[in-house]
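Data availability (excerpt). The following record was deposited with the supplementary files.
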Amino acid sequence: MCSNWKLFRTVQSRATARLTVNSAEFILGEKLNFIIEEDISRVCIILSVFARSGSKLQEATTLIGRCVTGPSDLACGDGLSHWTSVCSKQGMIRRTHILS
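Predicted structure:
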């Protein structure tokens, strides 16, 4: 979601999600890099992961979870900690997030 912010570029590696049927746990080892040209201290990134029951986009989807990274008025916990590190170092910080 990038309302009025310009998302300059995203870089993705190949998907490495491994899901087991009827399993509550999975690992998404996808590397996501966001390069944002606006004032990074005022930006929030919400990553939502959905499971789809069919091969078409119109078929039923279920929200598996999401993680929010951003400033203190929008994020908390690991998401806030990650964002604070990124803003203070003005660069990329590698971090693993748990979906909630």
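Summary of structural features: Residues 1-13 have pLDDT under 50 and may be disordered.
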